[in-house]
Amino acid sequence: xxxxxxxxxxxxxxxxxxxxxxxxxxxxxxxxxxxxxxxxxxxxxxxxxxxxxxxxxxxxxxxxxxxxxxxxxxxxxxxxxxxxxxxxxxxxxxxxxxxxxxxxxxxxxxxxxxxxxxxxxxxxxxxxxxxxxxxxxxxxxxxxxxxxxxxxxxxxxxxxxxxxxxxxxxxxxxxxxxxxxxxxxxxxxxxxxxxxxxxxxxxxxxxxxxxxxxxxxxxxxxxxxxxxxxxxxxxxxxxxxxxxxxxxxxxxxxxxxxxxxxxxxxxxxxxxxxxxxxxxxxxxxxxxxxxxxxxxxxxxxxxxxxxxxxxxxxxxxxxxxxxxxxxx
Length: 328
Prior knowledge:
mainly alpha
């Protein structure tokens, strides 16, 4: 046991010299710059704009401090801290999608109608009714909650197992996340749990999907899932803390978990892919089961993930070639 501890300690403290910022850090700075402009544009209509500005100042300051620390202690431990900072910031910025998208008319009536045309009913209503057991409720909630751990596991894998490809994996991961956020800013879709609550489930069952316009800018009431177990309570708790009527189309849960699966599939060792596969399958179904998304949201999340993975991998490759040519 002591030998294994020393081995892990030596691994994390191993010197890893790298000049400058990772691609994911440059992307984060770019994202903060663009959204900072958006905060100033909507200064009088967003909730607590000062806090939004200060959050970016704090993240930028922490990035600078960690980069300075890395100059004096160039180790994988410090790189891990740099990645953790960026991922925590991602979670913090999720509620901000609501602050921006609420300025536009919500489009839930369009996506609820698409689901009805595809199935002849509302899957987000019928799914949980047709599979009401505690076993399936807990299984789907386990998959939905595992989303956060899948993302962390993917980034840690590349840090520990394939460090030479960490910059690529981080670039693809964060670029995908930020583009999802920008879609949410300008395409407001609250999701079934909010839309059904607003219009009433009876209306949605009878093919009546009225427009809500700016209703969700001042109404955040949602349908709650039946709490039947530990994982269900975890999901409900997470939703109470950070969920807002926003970010339904395309599903970032499906999209980003699929990006992680593609990164895991591209790894030299496939064990992470196979380990996450059951959780990913449960997650995809869970998005509809707990009424977080319409089916079309989840399908779009799959499609967007594949497109983003290929697009940003290509962009990173082009950037790397240009950098090498410039250095030569």
